[in-house]
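Priority: low. Protein: protein-serine/threonine phosphatase. Input follows.
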Amino acid sequence: MCSGTELVSEHASRNLHLLLAKRPEFDKGDYEEAIKAALTDEDSILLNNFKTKTTEPAVSGSTVAICFINLTKGEMVVANLGDSHVVLAERDPRNDHPYHIHRLTKSHKPDVPSERSRIEDAGGTVNNRTGTARLGSLNMSRAIGDLQYKNPINKVDDSEASKKTRRASGSSDPGSRGDYLSNVPHINRQTLQSDRRYVVVVTSDGVSDNIDDTTLIRKVLSLSMRGMRAGDIAQDVANTTASKPGSDNGSCIVALLDGQDS
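Result:
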């Protein structure tokens, strides 16, 4: 799932899974490294589009949530950038009620101490002028796109993108700047048991900011017990959260797993 500005998020939604499948690490079962490399490949394509087609990738970006499941081996690898999330829960075989509800992803916010340190080490600064910690205009510290906050664009001292970057930067020497905004994901690997039932829900911040994980999972399984299919449940969750005042765009994916028979 990719959630952000239209050009970048749609491009990633169309291409990121293809880039992942092409990685040699993927064929070797090294899914973590394959995901990292695919995200770097996506940013490289966006950089090329910036150089040859449009400036949009420099000023637009997207969060990412990836969930890869190998049912044959019972392997589940989750990765995210920004504030899109993946929640996993087990389903009681007797009544389908959820338990062991876990958010497998991590929010990447500029004021998290480790993120602030990384940004400052790269020559950037975190500001709170709007009351929300931001890296430049962004309220997150990891994403694809938004190349004005990444090498090589943030090292170019005479571009319009660089002028915006300098306002977010504490570095006077463009050549010493690192990536203020990172595309290195948080990754979590889980082992799924073949005799257990699970539910996986992937959401953008438009959903996760409006409903806590436990309530979300209970809602999903309540609708499932009424006979709704996973796709319809996801649409219901997205529509419900999007209808709330002040809500952001909500995206949701639901998967109901019945062991290796899914």
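Strands lie at 2-4, 61-70, 75-81, 85-91, 98-103, 144-145, 186-191, 197-203, 252-258. The CA atoms of residues 96 and 225 lie 8 Å apart.
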